[in-house]
Amino acid sequence: MELALSLGDASRSLTNFTDKPVKIKDNMGFCMGLGALIKEKSQEKTQQQEITREDVRRASSDPPVQLDLLPFSPVQRYPPPPPSHLRFSWLSENFCRLLDFLWVIFDLFEAVNLCEPAGSNRVPEEAGVSSPNSGVSSFQMELSLQRNKRDFEMTMNEVDGERASSRASDDDENGLTRKKLRLSKEQSAFLEESFKEHNTLNPKQKLALAKQLDLRPRQVEVWFQNRRARTKLKQTEVDCEYLKRCCETLTEENRRLQKELQELRALKTCQPFYMQLPATTLTMCPSCERVAPTTTTTTAANATTTVNGGGSGPNLSLSDSSKQPKLNNNPFFQVQGHANQVAS
DNA sequence: ACCTTGTAGCACGTTACGTCA
DNA sequence: GTTGACGTAACGTGCTACAAG
């Protein structure tokens, strides 16, 4: 079995090994080596536990990550830790993805073409099997991490204390898939309290919260993002329910007014002509839900349901308040205010 | 002043894990 | 023990604002 490896045209070659093509903005013809990884994890994980892509991705995306920018050569698989002045904190996501994958390629290349790795009892064909979601087999990642462990340990002393402490919660993961930690009640309560004070965080607040709760800043950031999303979703549900009730109320009111209109029309045909008085009544348009003045005639008996329509008729009282469209009390016109109330 | 590029933060949708009935 | 629903941590993507060159 022969494996061709061409890093000169990375954007083309890398797509052969992943489910999803790796997006690469620039073709990079140099060798890159990670200078920091998970010290505690590497030490604690057993041979049976697989170290996943997630581990490598996180390790490569958490600043600072060290790179060796050396002329590409397959021999220089494990370059020595770079000097501190070659650290980069500007790694883009795609670049980190490329880093992840390059290690896999290196290990795969060696496993297939060079030699059987020490301590590995797997056949090389296994290395070509990709997991359905990650596009990188866990075997490859295990190989990669185990072999680079010694290199990582050389540079772990350079990892700053904050990062080391923030990663303390990572130790208990099994590493099979992406990790999901359940926050403790105390942590959730504290985050809730902070969210009540301000639903967004500036970097300083984020760092302070993370340090106080022994979480990674990214976790705090994600928590606030999800919390805002939950708030918005709940708000939407409340608004939806409220609008539903408004719709029901208006429908019922419209039905009542329509019935009243029918009664008035019936009375109009029955009452003597001299009893009819011109007036303007308020009717609710069923389609646009607006109150529109309609000049009609009614009897004195029903005059309490009309209002003065521009002086063309007598001023009539509004004694029967239950029959008036209550615009100010209509819930339809209160939705906005209600929404703001809930949001607060 | 204008443009380009990189970065950070966010909303939104989705995935996947943990919990519980 | 299994299963499905649900809550939610974590992630991917696109957009926008901003700063620096």
TrEMBL record:
GO terms for molecular function: DNA-binding transcription factor activity, RNA polymerase II-specific; sequence-specific DNA binding. Residues 130-140 have a biased composition (Polar residues). Residues 174-234 form the Homeobox domain. Residues 41-63, 120-140, 157-178, 299-332 are annotated as: Disordered. Belongs to the HD-ZIP homeobox family. Class II subfamily. PANTHER family: HOMEOBOX-LEUCINE ZIPPER PROTEIN HAT14 (PTHR45714). This is Homeobox domain. The lineage of its organism: Eukaryota, Viridiplantae, Streptophyta, Embryophyta, Tracheophyta.
